[in-house]
Amino acid sequence: MSGAGTERRVLDEAPGIRAMTWVMAIMLFLTLLAAAGGLGTARAARALDRQLAGRLTVQVVEGEPTRREATTRRVLAALGDREEVVRTVRVPQAELAAMLKPWLGADAADAGLPVPALIDVDLVDTDPATVARVATVVRAVSPATVQVEEHATWMTPVSGFLSSMTWLAGLVVLLMMAATGAVVMLAARAGLEAHRTTIGVMHILGSTDVQIARLFQRRIAIDAGIGSAAGGLGALAVILLIGGQMAALGSELLGSVTLGPTQWLVLALLPFGFVALATFAARVAVLAQLRRTL
Asked: Where in the cell is it found (predicted)?
């Protein structure tokens, strides 16, 4: 007793089996969104670490413009003599004024407020010893007015937040997969209970537990595949929509929360993983139930 017709007669009326299609669609939809968020933040965290590693900002905090300019020139000269330094860029005062404008207003430049000189420094490597040597040389120019800050230090909270979001997304994915397995097992047991008499007749006619389990897992795999396709297409539309909105914001940090080829491949494999999980869970649940009750 086998074949597509038999499979339909045994399973189509089972409560829970048909509803599982929609449950799988919802589960996969949420899982893909969580996975996309986690993969995107992980990629952004790596990009941020690469951008900030081995970079320093030198501030010349001097109120008197002439002395500030002289100290800045000495700092640039000291940096230019160091082989550890790849590049030095002085931030234009006009750019600093534009950055302060939202807080100080349009007349900030005419108010006579002391604005420090800023110099961005790129180093050859991220070795702490290299950073310490360069910082010591710079501070020696004028210990009272020259400050050195590592980009990686003041961006540590942001990097930590991105890492936390990545781990949280991974936990959500695992929980959703566990919940999916549980739903499939309940649906399979509901199907067995609904067709207990029919399955008993199949046993009398010589069908084995493995043959019966194969009917259930095949049908559940089909329904799980349909649900995965629906949930996957919905999640893809949402991911593309959110990605476009984030890119339109113009934020460098948010714009880095993107998906590369590897991340898209992982997302593409998740629906197949869900179908495989559903098939395996159905087989385990059916065989265990048949051994206990039939």
From this structure: Cell membrane
Give SS3 for 253: helix
Which amino acid does the sequence have at 80? G
Number of neighbouring beta carbons within 10 Å of residue 274: 26
Is the CB of residue 196 less than 8 Å from the CB of residue 286? Answer: no
What is the longest distance spanned by two Cα atoms in the chain? 101
Extents of the domains making up the chain = 4-49+157-293, 62-144
With tokens 């979001």, the residue in question is 165
One DSSP character per residue, 129-170 reads HHHHHHHHHHHHH-TTTEEEEEHHHHTHHHHHHHHHHHHHHH
The pairing of strands 117-123 and 55-60 is antiparallel
pLDDT tens column, 138-190: 888 887 777 777 766 666 777 778 888 889 999 999 999 999 888 888 877 77
Alpha carbon 274 to chain centroid, angstroms: 19
